[in-house]
Amino acid sequence: MGPGLEVEREEVMMRLARSILILAAGGAVSAPLCALGHGAEFLSAKLTLLPDAEVLLEVTADYGSNPMIADERAALDALADPIRLRQHETLVPLGTAEISRHQNWAEYAPASYLPSETEGEAHALITSSWRWRSAEPEIVFEMPKGKLHDVLLWTHDATQPDAPPKWMLLLAGDRSRPIPIQQTPWWRNWMAAAGTSGLVLIGIYFFSRNFTLRQRTL
Q1: Are 128 and 82 contacting, i.e. CB atoms less than 8 angstroms apart?
Q2: What's the average model confidence in pLDDT over 83-100?
Q3: Domain segments of the chain: what residues?
Q4: Strand, coil or helix: 76
Q5: Which residue among 35, 39, 112, 147 is least packed, with the fewest CB closer than 10 Å?
Q6: CA distance linking residue 96 with residue 125, whole number of Å
Q7: Angle (nearest 5°) at CA 185 between 97 and 84
Q8: Helix then strand then coil, % of the chain, to nearest 5
Q9: pLDDT at 14 > cutoff 80
């Protein structure tokens, strides 16, 4: 066995051991995840729950210090289809993403996942973003089988910004637990419908009034 294969085998075994440790802890590891190795070996998937059933998913890859991602091209490939929505027993790709390049880990990873300040390594980050309004009261993500990069999926509730994030590690073939979204209050839908109906009635009234006045002048 050549030295290259030996190094690759060691990296895979370390990655597997780290994943098993986190899964065994049930997603409740109190120590920073970077204590288990490089703090950026997962793809960080931040799911922001917005009002009115809107969700924003931002998946970030670090190709500056991640031994699993060699360069920017590899990072873009990893972010092309990192995770999928599960809808009625069907896996649905997320579609076209908005791409941004930055070095700001603090906005795109939970505090326990942030790389240690003592690492002294450069972090070149790429984030793919998707935003949509969910028609379902809950959403479920699933990792397609055969995926190389694990995904750290964590939620940020925009209506409760001080609440601690909830997170789970997804490996290839894993499915997330159902994630409730911020549904639009029924009264807001009723008010919107009432407002639309009112505008229609006002329009009909003015149309009828103008028609009547025109008839009188003839």
Answers
A1: yes
A2: 93
A3: 3-184, 186-218
A4: helix
A5: 35
A6: 19
A7: 25
A8: 35, 25, 40
A9: no
